[in-house]
Design brief:
With 137 residues, this protein is α+β, with helices and mostly antiparallel strands. 37% of the residues lie in helices and 28% in strands. It has a single domain, classed as endopeptidase fold (from Nostoc punctiforme).
Amino acid sequence: MATLYPTIKEAMQHLEVGDIVLMRSRSNGLFRRAIRELSQSYWTHAAMVFETVNIGGEVVSVSIVEANETIEVHRLETYVASERYDIGIKRLPGLTELDRDRIRGFFLDALDIPYDYTYIFAIMFARILSFFLGNKA
């Protein structure tokens, strides 16, 4: 069931480590259009909630981990401040606190590791090939 929040501040109160953050830039550049077309998705980027900062029982900041040039941690507020992105959240059901600790540990170990574009190019190649061969890739 989808829940719509009127502000990011309100949405942040419900985020948990391990939630998947889906993003779509409102700018319509060639690379973003290619990602949407090749992935057949509305979304162009994904990240994961890495940490929430609570002060006085209120979430005041959310850190996300994402792959750009390397695996990096950024504040979710950085994306939404400019209002250039549509944001969607997906929660993996059944995550325990141990699972959340493992997620944080995994990404701490992966920070600054260069992004591997091989998989992206493989998807792109498969889609292009299927276009010419008439198969669904």
